What we know:
The protein is an all-beta fold and about 80 residues long. The protein has one domain. The chain is built from no helices and seven strands. The protein is elongated. The model has no long low-confidence stretch (mean pLDDT about 85).
Amino acid sequence: MVQSLTGDVMAVANRDVKAGNAGLVAALVQAMATGNVNVTANRAIAARSGIDAENFGSGAIWLSLPLIAWSDRCC
């Protein structure tokens, strides 16, 4: 893990991801951080939370999901 107040985060999954909780996580967690969070999933993600993309600072969150996502869990 790298800690910085400026910069972008990019996470890419090119193969199937299977996890018990969060399948793919990308985040800027510092409130004063500036930057964008970019997440691309090119295959299936089987996990309780699927994708967790967060930006607590200033910037955008971009998701690229060229597939259909679903969940059998709610709320």
